[in-house]
Amino acid sequence: MSNNKKNNNCIQCDKSFKNLQGLKRHMLVHSEEKKFECNLCQKRFRHSTTLKRHLVVHSDEKPFKCPHCDKEFKLQSGYQRHIVVHTGEKPYSCTQCDKLFNRLSSLTRHLRTHSGVKLYHCTQCDKRFTQSLNLRVHLRTHSGEKPFACHHCNRQFTQSSSLRRHLKIHSGVKPFQCRRCNRCFKNSRNLELHEMKHRGGRIYKCDQCDKTFKTGSTMRRHRRIHSGERPFQCNYCNKCFNRGSNLQTHLRVHTGEKPYKCDHCDKFFNQLSNLRTHQRKAAEKSSSRVVIDAIICASDEIIHHTQG
């Protein structure tokens, strides 16, 4: 057995194979030869099996059909990636934090959050990213590109998620229904404000510190201060937050997004508070200049008067 394995060793990389056929197939990896050519697009392949898989791209045949939603796929790999949407299977586990993933590529991207490896580099500002998607989103802050446009009002967005949130305004979908009068609302906030009318302006009270709130959601957010609960986790660095809005603000550290622009100097900021601080300092500086100019002007007048 050992002699057979030795005879079927690759001289390029010492990899061993059970039989000569396996070795010959492997040797093509080291060779530049790609003798199997597609007669439709002239693309070349090292293996006949790879060529056969490629030929499906040119045909309309979709032999792999999803039993759950009737979606069809040309390649088995595409079908296998899709099927986990229905099964919920997540076979890939992170050894660092036990987080589960349905794709190996997703696990690979996630592992960079632990290793700190940032392969993707912005040539405009030297900022680095763990994922190519984050770099692409970040580059739009330099180019001003907003590729996602609303077909209702032509408003444009840098990210598809922002467009999806915006589209709810036009869709007319109102999934939040009042249990008392069946009136429907686009978001939970509007529903809560409406339900206050039925309660006669009932107040929500925190049982920990007696603080009162107008809505149940505001009270629940407040209670996380006492419980220490932080249900909103960053997918990039696993930092947790007690509010979804705080997580959204934090995510800009990773994406490089700066949505707040100063009208006076075209500077961009990732937080509204930073923009306001910038504007306040600019206003103070401008005010100081006015005072100094007034003092200089008054001094000139005094000198002119005394000399006269």
Describe the SSE topology.
Elements: H1 2-7, H2 20-30, E1 36-37, E2 44-45, H3 48-55, E3 64-65, E4 72-73, H4 76-87, E5 92-93, E6 100-101, H5 104-115, E7 120-121, E8 128-129, H6 132-143, E9 148-149, E10 156-157, H7 160-171, E11 176-177, E12 184-185, H8 188-199, E13 204-205, E14 212-213, H9 216-227, E15 232-233, E16 240-241, H10 244-255, E17 260-261, E18 268-269, H11 272-307
Order of helices and strands: HHEEHEEHEEHEEHEEHEEHEEHEEHEEH
Largest sheet: 2 strands, antiparallel
Helical fraction:
40-55%
Q: Mean pLDDT, as a whole number?
A: 78
As residue ranges, the low-confidence spans are 1-6
> Which oligomeric state applies?
single chain
Q: Tell me the CATH architecture of the domain at 8-58.
A: 2-Layer Sandwich
How many extended strands?
18
The CATH superfamily of the domain at 8-58 is identified as Classic Zinc Finger
* Broad structural category: mainly alpha
| Cα separation of the termini | 116 Å
Main location: nucleus
Domain C2H2-type: 8-35, 36-63, 64-91, 92-119, 120-147, 148-175, 176-203, 204-231, 232-259, 260-290
GO cellular component, one term: nucleus
Keywords: DNA-binding, Metal-binding, Nucleus, Repeat, Transcription, Transcription regulation, Zinc, Zinc-finger
